[in-house]
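COMPLEX REQUEST
Ligand: EPZ
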Amino acid sequence: MNATPQDYRHLDVGPLLGNDSGMNDLLYVNGGNPLSGTITVRGAKNFVSKAMVASLLGETKSVLRNVPQIRDVAVVSGLLSLHGVQVEYSAADGVINLDPSAVESAHVAEIDAHAGSSRIPILFCGPLLHRLGEAFIPDLGGCHIGDRPIDFHLEILRRFGAEVDKREGGIHLRALGRLKGIKMELPYPSVGATEQLLLTAVRAEGITELSNAAIEPEIVDLICVLQKMGAIISVDTDRVIRIEGVDRLTGFTHTALGDRIEAASWASAALATGGDVTIKGAHQVEMMAFLNTFRKVGGQFEVHDQDIRFWHPGGPLRSIVLETDVHPGFMTDWQQPLVVALTQATGLSIVHETVYEKRFGFTCALRKMGANIQIYRECLGGAPCRFGQRNFHHSAVISGPTPLHAADVEVPDLRGGFSYLIAALAANGRSTVRGISLIDRGYEAFQEKLEALGADVSRG
Ligand code: EPZ
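STATUS: Structure written out below.
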């Protein structure tokens, strides 16, 4: 069975095709119930989509396990299918089979229609340049949490020997002969740029060395996939990654690491609602920075082999000073859900966002719901970051505890959207959360999970 939009049964087909209808795109949330029970998180969105792209580099079939049924998987499946990859997905088993033996160029208009709201298309560059000698990458979507330029990506591709031609609607790339290994230092340890380099270097001629690389667990898992395919990659402790290019790669069989962002989101929901949630598929090693912070705020957790239990022990939560950072720091994607829980902590919490310059826009709606949050341009509470001199509102001071009340809110971005669900669950009264199809991008069956945890929610 080919992965078609119909396979993503609980998802709207419209958003998959970049055609939001707005129908039934809201959730009513009757707040006040502590979340309680057990849920499962499957593979990490920010790994699964990249591993799917990596399959393009192999000459044989790949099998990826623990794949969640989320819209980003649907978007990448669509793009791979357009390029001649046979994609078969069983949502129940979470297994995706990818056969790239008949890869071909796709029509520009179709690529555009399937790119949806994702940023993953930019990672098709290296694999397509190796397979076809050219690529067309549509203008990217993704969450509006900063400018999110792709200058590092384009610089990497140019240095490998690709001709990069910006056109209306996207970028056309052409390989001028076989791509050749490079030595490069990233200005910032960008996740996407590191992945771009990995997916390009593995089949380039000679050695590539990247300094100041990102080393997020999802990247390490991608390196494991590439090693299974036949790549030679070493990761040093000082953020240096070395790749020896090889002529051929095969397919892989791999089980995706769990989604630590989804796990932390549910943990924050447990804390904000005074609940007790066990998350199967959450792993300590990838969440250590989150677990430390969760404990400092006053939440409790218990790590088991297959799950982590998170709960609010009763009594007041504590305010904290927090700075987001690249791995092994506190992830930016954990920030938004946790901020909702911090509205319930006693005293002043300070959160300094150092990864994205505009990731506090979501706090407007929280203020509407009764939270006391002020946003500042200065780097508060930590070392100065690269946004300090640039006039961005990237520090927040949260004063609590403040009771939250119901409101009518519109999802601004993926993690901000989940944060609104948490706020609505913690609030008194019935909230309306609009634009929830955006949450489908990264949270598998979130309504079913909410219901399983005792939340009183219904679709509009
Ligand atoms: C990935 O985005 C994730 N997305 C993001 O998750 C995550 O927040 C981010 O990494 C950081 O962990 C996916 O994996 C699909 P970056 P990415 O390149 O790769 C700047 C979520 O909610 N930068 O590490 O796009 C950039 O502007 C999403 O799941 C450049 O300046 O992030 C940002 O400030 C949101 N030029 C910083 O680097 C470039 O060419 C980090 O971005 C590239 C990045």
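REMARKS: Residues 45-46, 119, 143, 146-153, 188, 190-193, 214, 261, 331-333, 355-356, 414-415, 442 surround EPZ (CB under 6 Å). Residues 217-229 form the longest helix (13 residues).
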